[in-house]
Write a structure and sequence with these properties.
The complex is a heterodimer of chains A (about 170) and B (about 400).
Chain A (H helix, E strand, L loop, with lengths): L15 E5 L5 E5 H4 L3 H8 L9 E2 L5 H19 L11 H11 L4 H14 L2 H15 L4 H7 L7 H13 L6
Parallel strand pairs in A: 1-3
Antiparallel strand pairs in A: 1-2
Helix pairs in contact in A: 3-5, 5-6
Chain B lengths: L12 H8 L4 H6 L16 E5 L9 H7 L2 H10 L6 E7 H6 L1 H9 L8 E7 L2 H4 L13 E3 L11 E5 L1 E3 L17 E5 L2 E3 H9 L6 E5 L2 E3 L2 H10 L7 E5 L5 E5 L8 E5 L5 E7 L3 E3 L10 E7 L12 H21 L6 E6 L13 H4 L11 E5 L9 H10 L1
Parallel strand pairs in B: 1-2, 2-3, 3-5, 4-6, 5-7, 7-9, 8-10, 9-12, 11-13, 12-14, 13-15, 14-16, 16-17, 17-18
The chains are: A mainly alpha (about 170), B alpha/beta (about 400).
Amino acid sequence: MAAPESGDGNNGAARMVTLISSDNTRFEVEAAAASLSQTLQLTILDGGGGGGDGIPLPNVDSATLSKVLEYCIKHAPAAANGGAPNATAVDRAELERFDNEFVNIDQSVLYSLIMAAHNLEIEGLQSLVAKKVADMIKGKSPMEIRRTLGFPDPTPEEQAEMNAHMLEYGWAYE
Amino acid sequence: MSRGGTVISDLPDDLLRRILFFAPAKEGASTAVLSRRWRRLWLSSGAVNIHWPADKRLCTSKQWRSLFDVPEAALAAVHAHGPVRRLTFHGGVELYRSEPYTIVAALSHPAARHVEELRFTVVQDDEAAGGKHGNKPWRRGKYTLHLGDLPSEDLGTLHLARCSISSNLMPPPAELAFPWLAVLRMEACTVFMEQLNRVIDAAPRLATLHIERTWLMLFGVVEEVVRANKQAPWSWSSRLRGPAVTALVLVDCEWPNYVRMDLDMPRLRYFRYKGHVPQLSLLGSSPAVNIAQVDVHFMEEEVNNTAGGGGGGDAMTTTRDRMRSFFWKFIQCFYNASILKVRLDYLIEHVAVAKEDQDEIICPNKFFSNLDRLEIEAPHIASSDGTALALLLSCGS
């Protein structure tokens, strides 16, 4: 793979950083991939994460982190091109295919992912998961939405509140 | 959920709003009854996404009537809790057409005034798509949009799919202004070049212009003249302006092949083109000084046998000659590019230039001296000597 043209004066092997998950698993990744995270980018620019140090991520477990990094590695080349649309060696359609496949996972994993993306400030991943969850409720009735998102059936009190709400926002329940 | 994984209630309000930002308005609004915590989340999501069915046969008559109440009601509800940043419409073309006032009313609603992202997506059921327009189903089933109806103050992103921009009811140029518009994306649309340029002129910050499967028309009068004369005036040209455009994508677009497209985009850095080999040129004193990457994918052109009425072989030769000449004119526009990717759907030999024609076709001062990377993907005849490739390579060295 060709080095990005606006390199940081690093002509040899790509710079690597180490990330440490909450359960103490170490992940070694290219700095360019980890830098998709705004939070990590700052640390990396300060020279952190190299050598034996590693950057501890106490809020992200290893299963989630490996998924997050899978996303970052795939999206890093596109991001390296200044974010210009399509200005990348990676085919846009191929990225779309990857994204669709990537979020085709259990709900609990989706929620862990969006939390991690939120903590690490990975803009694209947050939107990707948010869209997926929004799609899950598309075309569903209020009751179906409850069940889809794992809410228990309403108590009589909640039911009364629901009815009041449905009167106020009738247009949403036709 | 009982397995102890993360559940949706674990997410902070910010993230839940972010999810609801993409949810259709009806479903979004109805999440208010999930629990007390959700009561105001959608209302403060900053988005109204109108999601109509693809086909009116999918709704009962009661649903049908209520569909058109949603946009205004949803806009008013969200507006009461903060600015509406995103407004989208998605649905079958009948939905757009049957109550056109619904959309106009939504766009002129005070809540829509500060919208930053606006999308119109017209969908079409597959059955209708296979109709008389054959392999160009995108030519039909469009919603006609009036430029003057769009909220413009804060608009940053405009996506249009299967829309056409109306030629009448254009506001006077002075009144059309999209001061923050940065991204314009059109898919399967129909637009007159003149109108497209009007939008671009009104958008001094437009950086990304993405036009796909779109029919770019010249004013009807020109087409009439051409049809009447039965002859193509090869000197016709049409200008596509873009003073701030840095990324241009033209994929599978159509415009009359006798019209040369003059790109007036002095800041262009990235250009992707897919389609027939067009007549293309770059305008400006130092064309394409900024260009970094060019991706082109040329398709085989159908030979027009109706012209002249002579032998098919002649028509074929004419078409090939034209394609070859256009190819080199096109490619040499981007002699400053550092990355050039060329993909041909036809034999690379068809772009090869005979020695005696080289002076005529290849411009001597347009060598690719900045080229870092060249990718060529094309079928070729195994035994041929690869003149075309050699030419490109000698340009690049």
